[in-house]
Amino acid sequence: xxxxxxxxxxxxEYPSAIIGIVIILFLIGLALYAxxxxxxxxxVRLWRGAEAMWIENPRNARPIWMDWFTPASLPRxxxxxxxxxxxxKEIIPLTDxxxxxxxxxxxxYQYDDFxxxxxxxxxxxxxxxxxxxxxxxxxxxxxxxxxxxxxISREDAYRISQDERLRRQLGGILPHTGLFMDPNAExxxxxxxEYELVIEGLVFEEGADLDVRMIAYGRIxxxxxxxxxxxxxxxxxxxxxxVALAFGFLAAVGTTxxxxxxxxxxxxxxxxxxxxxxxxxxxxxxxxxxxILVMIGTMYSRSIWVLLGAIxxxxxFSAVIKIYRAMFIQVRESPFIEAARAYGASGPxxxxxxxxxxxxxxxxxxxxxLIPTYVFLExxxxxxxxxxxxxxxxxxxxxxAQHQGALYMGHYYWVLLPSFLLIITGLGFSMxxxxxxxxxxxxxxxx
Amino acid sequence: xxxNNDLLSIENLHTFYxxxxxxxxxxxxxxxxxxxxxQVKKGEAISVVGESGCGKSTLAKTVLGLVEPTDGKIxxxxxxISHMGKEEMxxxxxxxxxxxxxxxxxxxxxxxxxxxxxxxxxxxxxxxxREQTRHIHxxxxxxxxxxxxQFLNKFPxxxxxxxxxxxxxARATIMNPKLIVADEPVSMLDASVRxxxxxxxxxxxxxxxxxVIYITHDxxxxxxxxxxxxxxxxxxIIEEALVDDLLKNPLHxxxxxxxxxxxxxxxxxxxxxxxxxxxEPPNLLNPPPGCRFHPRCEFRIEGxxxxxxxxxxxxxxxHRVECWLYKE
Lengths: 447, 328
Fold this sequence. Notes:
CATH architecture of the largest domain in chain A: Orthogonal Bundle
Helix content of chain A: 40-55%
Largest interface: A-B, 21 and 31 residues
Structural class of chain B: alpha/beta
Number of domains of chain A: 2
Number of domains of chain B: 1
CATH superfamily of chain B: P-loop containing nucleotide triphosphate hydrolases
Strand content of chain A: 15-25%
Largest sheet of chain A: 5 strands, antiparallel
Shape of chain A: elongated
Number of strands of chain A: 9
Low-confidence stretches of chain A: none
Oligomer: heterodimer
């Protein structure tokens, strides 16, 4: 064991191994950060929760850092809520029952692009008679638009962006563009300055109340942007890291270590034990693994852990057993095994204390290189629509991106970020694995 | 030569390797050990010599219980080892040490010297670490590997060939066995180390009253070591005698040829040619009928040697030979 560790020290001589280790440590750090900062139930809620969960997020927004690379400053989401700012609400009693509520939501708009959407969410308190509301829009240069008047229910929303009448009134321009447009500019540019949204409400009961929340959705959000359902992609990217690493690691452990023990047992006991293992291996070798996994996913369960179990089970008797067996047969005939038998070592002891330690150094690099293979397999299954129904994973982000035509729509960040994580995972483990291969199999050093 | 103080008594031992086709059809046997009788007394060192492929290593492995004998008996300390249960076999294995030919191959490369020496003790029921350490210190000190601490944490590849072989010997003797089987223990070592290792083995043997079966193809090292010598040819023992008798007065034509072939560092050897019997060692899959040496023997008696297997003859006291030439 100590010898094994001392060999690991040689890693310092391989820059690729150091880069690989840095990448792996980064991924592990990311995974730990995700696990600590977003607990499992929270992650599932953030990813699977209802629309209300993401109502404040813009749809298909780019990552915030994209702003740094464009000369124009992209709009962020602006939220104004009377509940947070009671001063914006003025109540004027008119009669005993009738009163007027005037809400003035003002905000400073200094961005070079139009917001993605504007919505108003209204909550009203009343017994029988619905309040009646009029919406007014004031631009910094003093123009005033009467948006609409309507009576509202207890929970109501006015999606300004989807108001067809207003759109016609603005000359066919989308409301969230038209309301911000500088009328004197040749190209459509937003007018910077203080905007005001005035909501004049009439309530018909004593004690009736009205609250308004305005959201002017921006075009950038979070470190990874959002998807078509307003979900923050960073949740999936963060939580995808521990899932991917655990999946890859467990699958690699399951397949290499158990396979190695099976191969060692077969080559030590020979005769029918070996025969049986070899026949099973030959049958498993011709089984099409991916279609079987797809079948399990569609007909039984899409849980990532069920698929992991299936991969390990199918991987137990994979073709590598033949390679391990070839190595073990060579080890089995070594004089030190004969010596161990001569001083009375039992079969299991010889397998675990003498045969397996002999070939472990040769397997460490393979093991490391195998991890990303399974990470990719999980992403592949997710791309085929067999992602875990609960857990957010990288593969699922890619699946959504593909189904929403992300590249066609220009949302390349949606594809590139999970792909980038997949690529560095593969890169990190491979760089370390190939360096370890050279350390543990010195004959390769000359090549 | 059967006797009651025999530690080990091998009677009519046969060890065949089966040849099979398609895994189950027997197509023949390699008769590696074919009817061997041999007695080893307590504390006695005997040498088994013979050319490559004569069955001497198979004899060793059969004695160690690594290979199942096909027929015959091996009796150790009054017990027949082929009828031993698991527990008894364990007892037997602790009483017999094994020293192999290739010291580097014989040591697990991933274990330290300490671990290597602990293994036999752990397996054979000495679990107390202090006792293990004591045994290791005693063993290594006896083999002149001092200071012991300097070696304990080393891996086999960090040791010289002689040191490796000493670790192998320490491992073989750590359970205080009664018998050591040494299969060509010095043939892979430098000539300078050979004598040293053999002398160490000799000291151990005398001090602990060890019986040693020393297997070699090199007659020149035999006299360092043993009292008795056994010559094997084609799976059989063809001659057995005390070392001095055999070296001075070899009887079997094969033994004579073997002794002729010993090389001395003598300048005269450059110009002389050694007489070596022609032909090849016998094919043990299909050994020649009669005496196995007859196709190569220059003293062959036509009509007898190629037909009938020779019996044991005793032309001198304590000197057994299987050769028709000594028929009275």
